[in-house]
From TrEMBL:
Compartment list: Cytoplasm, Cytoskeleton, Cilium basal body
This protein's name: Ciliogenesis and planar polarity effector 2
Alphabetized PANTHER family for the sequence: CILIOGENESIS AND PLANAR POLARITY EFFECTOR 2
Family (UniProt): Belongs to the small GTPase superfamily. Rab family.
Gene3D superfamilies: P-loop containing nucleotide triphosphate hydrolases (3.40.50.300)
Gene encoding the protein: CPLANE2
Pfam families on file: Ras (PF00071)
Length: 246
């Protein structure tokens, strides 16, 4: 996979804990819980705090039962389903997340449209995967710490989404990390995977809290990689334009 930036290199980590972030994060909270945003809704900011919003489409990939739907619910601050069910088609979830850029101090709202599609549905209906790939910006590759086969399948998952002109952001997320007593994947194996693929493995698990701490690391990591990818693409485009003029 393409090199990823060091955590905190592009965005201010744990900015949600700083006093100057409260006004921004209050726009995605209601009574200390996350607001639910539909496809046409967005946070409303006062004129003196107007910020730009950047839009990204993110596909959640993984075997049935690894927690794709649960991850989307967690990132949106919604209740995690108590029982597993196979997603029958495509489900989309909108997540807004404010980020402060480290170099400029500029604040941006990241609008992440998460796409979740059931594994069996993808196999049965040929038109679903092209719809998921259309104008896609990132893929989250999921495995479960309680399902050894999902970890072993990561390389196959990543290979299916790789190509010579591929600009997708690719991140690996291990779910059900809280169930360490039942883990089928060791930390040594995770470390070896990170070294081999040059990509960190993000972890998630447990109940959704009323705060932001349980999703901040993952959302900041995703936002940072998306912004870094855009900056790299803009730089390459500028160099090509300069070369053409010369």
């Amino acid at each position: 996979m393409a090199p990823v930036p060091q955590p905190g290199a592009a965005v201010v980590a744990d900015w949600h804990r700083d006093a100057d972030s409260r006004e921004f994060f209050s726009r995605i909270l209601h009574k200390k819980r996350r607001r639910k945003f539909s496809l046409l809704e967005s946070p409303v900011m006062p004129p003196h705090l107007a910020v730009d919003t950047v839009h990204y489409k993110v596909f959640i990939s993984g075997k049935s039962g690894v927690g794709k739907t649960a991850l989307a619910a967690r990132l949106a601050g919604r209740s995690i389903p108590s029982m597993h069910y196979e997603t029958t088609g495509i489900e989309t979830t909108v997540v807004y997340w404010p980020v402060k850029l480290r170099e400029s101090g500029r604040v941006l709202f990241f609008r992440l449209q998460l796409w979740d599609c059931g594994e069996n549905a993808l196999r049965r209906f040929d038109h679903l995967l092209p719809s998921c790939k259309e104008q896609l910006d990132a893929v989250l590759f999921l495995f479960s710490f309680t399902d050894r086969t999902s970890f072993d399948d990561l390389s196959n998952q990543i290979a299916k989404w790789s190509g010579p002109s591929d600009r997708l952001v690719k991140l690996v997320v291990g779910t059900k990390y809280d169930l360490f007593m039942h883990s089928d994947v060791t930390e040594r194996e995770v470390t070896r995977f990170q070294e081999e693929w040059g990509s960190p493995v993000l972890r998630t698990g447990g109940e959704v809290s009323d705060g932001l701490g349980d999703v901040a690391a993952l959302l900041n990591g995703l936002a940072e990689n998306l912004w870094h990818q855009d900056c790299v693409a803009a730089s390459q485009h500028s160099q090509q334009a300069t070369g053409t003029l010369i």
